[in-house]
Amino acid sequence: MTAMKTVYYTATSVDGFIATADHSLDWLLSRHSDEDGPMGYNQFITAIGAIAMGASTYQWILDNEPGEWSYTVPAWVFTHREFPEFEGRDIRLTAEPADIVHKQMAAAAPGKDLWIVGGGDLAGQFADHGLLDEIIVSIAPVTLGSGAPLLPRHLELKVTEVAPNGEFACVRYEVAR
Ligand SMILES: NC(=O)c1ccc[n+]([C@@H]2O[C@H](COP(=O)([O-])OP(=O)(O)OC[C@H]3O[C@@H](n4cnc5c(N)ncnc54)[C@H](OP(=O)(O)O)[C@@H]3O)[C@@H](O)[C@H]2O)c1
């Protein structure tokens, strides 16, 4: 059995940034959402069998949540850098193309979904190979003007779910093929 869906699940500003230019998430973490509510994290994470993130996202975790690694599933970190790893956690540093890593992730997560944590270009790299199935965004009521882009690609999407959650507007999209 292979993995089911590959999902980019993230929060964004109204103008399409997932972090400020200096990688701050204060605009996001200061806002209320119900993790058990519509498109909430607690339900989402139960379906996930492997995750992928880029170097800036990993660096953010190292800087802001030192010593904490909340994920229990295998993780791939795309980078050309050397990074400390979390002892006892399955974290694989890689610079291989997204399609190769996708095969590795799928093999590690039979019957489960794959989560592209971010950033946006990394989600785009999976989409470039036709390997991104779904995008779930929690839109915070703020504009940032600049920052790390949500998804710097042209993709055609279909809305499959819309719901408010706390201060956020949550939208689920299917990526059209
Ligand atoms: N709003 C949210 O919910 C949310 C979610 C996730 C992330 N974030 C934040 O958004 C920001 C994202 O930063 P970002 O746009 O710079 O994206 P990123 O994907 O986190 O990091 C980009 C870096 O990853 C490495 N990388 C990407 N693709 C690679 C590949 N194929 N092979 C090897 N290395 C590769 C490169 O770094 P090197 O070559 O230098 O290693 C690249 O500069 C971070 O601040 C993060 O904390 C927010």
TrEMBL record:
- Ranges of residues in domain Bacterial bifunctional deaminase-reductase C-terminal: 74-154
Q: Which GO terms describe its molecular function?
A: 5-amino-6-(5-phosphoribosylamino)uracil reductase activity
Per the record, a Pfam family?
RibD_C
Annotated GO biological processes are:
riboflavin biosynthetic process
Superkingdom is Bacteria
Against Gene3D superfamilies, the record matches this protein to: Dihydrofolate Reductase, subunit A (3.40.430.10)
What name has this protein been given in UniProt? Dihydrofolate reductase
| Highest classification ranks of the organism | Bacteria, Bacillati, Actinomycetota, Actinomycetes, Mycobacteriales
